[in-house]
Amino acid sequence: MTATIEPDVTIDSRDAACPGPLMDLIGKVKTLEAGTVVELQTTERNSTTDVPEWLEEAGHDLLEIESRDDHWSLYIEVN
């Protein structure tokens, strides 16, 4: 990653089983204003495909997926 993304909101869904991380994200996004950057932390591998699919349908932007030592961080911009 060339620049560090500074999220406005972090959702810690590590150790939540699928579809928990996606449901956590959907619930939170409904409360946020456009332009808010969200970091979703997850240990659920399926989130790396399920979340981008939902974002495309919902009209939000996937900024980055980072693989960490013990989880993934998905960065989303709310539209």
UniProtKB/TrEMBL annotation:
Record key words, sorted: Transferase
A molecular function (GO) term: transferase activity
One Pfam entry name: TusA
Protein name: Sulfurtransferase TusA family protein
Family membership noted in the UniProt record: Belongs to the sulfur carrier protein TusA family.
Source organism of the structure: Natronorubrum aibiense
Occurrences of domain UPF0033 (ranges): 10-77
Protein origin, superkingdom: Archaea
